[in-house]
Amino acid sequence: xxxxxxxxxxxxxxxxxxxxxxxxxxxxxxxxxxxxxxxxxxxxxxxxxxxxxxxxxxxxxxxxxxxxxxxxxxxxxxxxxxxxxxxxxxxxxxxxxxxxxxxxxxxxxxxxxxxxxxxxxxxxxxxxxxxxxxxxxxxxxxxxxxxxxxxxxxxxxxxxxxxxxxxxxxxxxxxxxxxxxxxxxxxxxxxxxxxxxxxxxxxxxxxxxxxxxxxxxxxxxxxxxxxxxxxxxxxxxxx
Length: 239
Fold this sequence. Notes:
239 residues, alpha/beta, TIM Barrel, 8-stranded parallel barrel, 10 strands, 18% strand, disordered C terminus
């Protein structure tokens, strides 16, 4: 069932909000964007964060030593590579830390998605492409391209790891998206903000809708199991 990541936390007030509604992940952005945080800001937020929530460090072409430092200090639990990191870069990360890695693809075409899926990372993240931007644009994700890519990979016998889905997701469209494309985790930043700040009402609405969807799907499978007498494998992609 889809998990939730609230990305781009900047303040202790943001942490207070997510601690109430307990998404599985939050994101601290260490790239030079409007959501940038320093190491010390991230440390303070991590110390205040509910222990069951994993902190994801979001990086764009960051020096490896800085990434590893944040891991070793316990500031982040997951590494998200949102830039143009090479397979060699990811391999060095994997050789030097056990911290899980998410590799982002900013989706332009189905051919591009197929070529950029890497087995080196534990997770993929598919986000909206925007020229000269590495994410957080709030622009709607092209689901039809991703679906075509996933079908092509399936036809080739290629198994893709669990993936995060980002790009223009909001409380207003999340039910439509969930009904169209299964994924491991829903990743939202702009969609739960007002004037650049996380808004509690939007965070609550988003998470409540995703949890309700999870419950409805679970009930559907339980009913199907009761009808057949067999356990049915989930249709979700590697959740």
